[in-house]
Amino acid sequence: MDENKMVAGKVKKPGKRGRKPAKIDLKAKLERSRQSARECRARKKLRYQYLEELVSSKERAICALREELEMYKQWCSAMDQGKIPSEIKALLTADEQKTPGGGATKTSKNSKTNGISNGSS
């Protein structure tokens, strides 16, 4: 019998499977590999720059939130001593100026929440 086999109408020759290695110049292959490595390093550098910027922006946001938290803690301690901080007074007066006549409904909402919080304490 012939060494060639017929499979689906095509003649198959025995031997290695898969693609045959192309006859390419070793220098060209090496240069392509170097270029690919350069591009990979450039992408990595950009990725790290982006991540560093992201981290620094998150750190700035954390600092701002800590300052805000400290401010609220100071306000709470002042209110515990019976003093109303000037910032809160300014917020309340600005809120009353924004809604003329509507301040009564807001105080009723606030009195409801105050009643609940006072009842639970």
TrEMBL record:
Family matches, as Pfam families: bZIP_2
Ranges of compositional bias, category Basic residues: 10-21
Annotated keywords: Activator, Differentiation, DNA-binding, Nucleus, Transcription, Transcription regulation
Domain of life: Eukaryota
InterPro entries given in the database record: bZIP, bZIP_sf, CREBL2/REPTOR-BP
Disordered: region residues: 1-23, 92-121
Gene Ontology molecular function: any one: DNA-binding transcription factor activity
Keyword Oxidoreductase: no
Compartment list: Nucleus
Gene Ontology cellular-component terms listed: nucleus
Biased composition (Polar residues): 105-121
One of the protein's GO biological processes: cell differentiation
Domain annotation BZIP: ranges: 26-75
UniProt keyword Transcription, yes or no: yes
Family the entry assigns: Belongs to the bZIP family. ATF subfamily.
Name of the protein described by the UniProt record: cAMP-responsive element-binding protein-like 2
